[in-house]
Amino acid sequence: MNRATIVAFAVLSALSINAGTWNGLDDSNYYSGPKISESDLAGKVVMVDKWGVNCPPCRALLPAMQKLWNANKSKPFMLVGSHCQGRNPEKVKELVDANKLTYPIYEWAGLDNAPSSSGLPFMYVVDHRGKVVYSGRSHEEAEAAVQKAIAAIGAMPVLCGGVSLQAFKSMEKQLVLGKSVKTQVKTLNAAVKKGEAKNATPVQKKQAEEAKAILAAIEEAKTDITNEIESKRETDPEEAYKLAKAYVASFPSEGAELKSQLPEMAAKAKERKSAK
Length: 276
Known about the structure:
Strand content: 5-15%
Largest sheet: 6 strands, mixed
Number of domains: 2
CATH superfamily of the largest domain: Glutaredoxin
Shape: flat
Strand order of the largest sheet: 2-5-4-3-7-8
């Protein structure tokens, strides 16, 4: 993949859920808590709580939201309360005061391409790479996703994200950027071939479906990672170099062009590090 292609992928990614724009974070939508902007969310895990003053389950969750904020506000994390039942400063303030809420609350704040919801409360969690890793109405599941996403900061990206491994559980530790995945991909393709054969058993067909899901996740991860490398070349050359080096290790064929750029990227990363 040449650099022009990588740039094209980066441009296209602006249309995906991995590169959404944060809306509603302006004074006209502000209610309470610290005022924030899109730049304040970069590189952080973000949980958006969509709620309303006329929603009893939403109001019941407010103390739990404050507890989550208290426990994680010193970490690379941001909780954003997004009120969604019409601009209502008086009622919102009443609930903010009653529950001693200190996290940012805005009217209809969130990603422009956020997961859709059919009711309230509704929460979604965005990891530090800008990918939605949870969406739903369970506070417990959302909080678990937050903790998992925070723990993943600094770790290499997982290449099978979003796929629950069962038949191929043993591959989980290997499907991480920086590790060779040639053998695993070969095994997965073989499983797909077996599952699509005329005499395939139900078990083989099920394994084939799982294998297809993993292979699709790997392809998606390739695109996400090359996008991130390109976007960080100037803003965070150290991280870009680390990711590029790992990408080449996992995908030597696709990363041939990137491999030729590693010396230049290493020099830029060293220069940035010495300037700190």
